[in-house]
Amino acid sequence: MVSDSTQSAQSNPNPAPRGILDMHCHLLPGIDDGPETMDQAVALCRVLWREGVTAAIATPHQLGRYALDNNAARVREATVALQQKLNERRIGLTLYPGGEVRLDDRVSRLIEEASVNTLADRGTHVLIELPPELVIEPDALLPRMATSLGPLKVVLAHVERYGCFRNDSAAARRWFDAGAILQVNTGSLLGIFGEAEQTCAWNLLSQGVATIVASDAHNLTNRPPRWGDAMRRITARLGAPFAHRVCFENPAAILHGLPSA
Length: 261
Description:
Blueprint: H1 6-10, E1 20-25, H2 38-50, E2 53-58, E3 61-62, H3 72-88, E4 94-97, E5 100-102, H4 107-112, E6 125-129, E7 146-147, E8 150-151, E9 153-156, H5 163-167, H6 171-177, E10 181-185, H7 186-189, H8 195-206, E11 210-214, H9 227-238, H10 240-255
Parallel strand pairs: 1-2, 2-4, 3-5, 5-6, 6-9, 9-10, 10-11
Antiparallel strand pairs: 7-8
């Protein structure tokens, strides 16, 4: 059974975001390759907030090498615990549980069994990480993404980092046309992961194929949020309304479980 997101909303009285909404970030301490301690997690959240992020979906890795260690219940408990710390320290960031789910044939069943999280626990969108070394077509995945509560909308994490999309300019379009939502990282737009990733990210964003920007932040050293620099760059190149759409409006649609973003 898919859980509602009321648990995280209850831990903060203002769940409606007014600024940037980061729907892919690794904030929870000691659960994956994100922050190791609660203090590190709080520091990362403070930077997000200072850079204009008012709501974030915590998306620790699920499945893949983490198997079911980071199950849905553990993620929800960790999200509530971190939110309480943020409230105590008056950091105005609202958190929601989610997961970056490694591609697996069992995803739909594991969501129904409450073992894997959907984004913000809405039961409508799931953030999928593809294996970087494989070429996968949308018809191999999308038709099977449904639970007893209805179809699941697939959000593909950091699409510019997959070789299949960098090497085949039409691949991302096929996923987009098939109904997937494509997300690119702030760091990629700034060239942190390399020139090829940067070029791919900007091409997909400017073409309207990638419609979500997220930080995929892990820490404050080699994987910081970089929202300030990214927002300035997006606004300069594509305009303020475009930046608002891909950094707030479209992620907000996912946060509220709307059918499209």
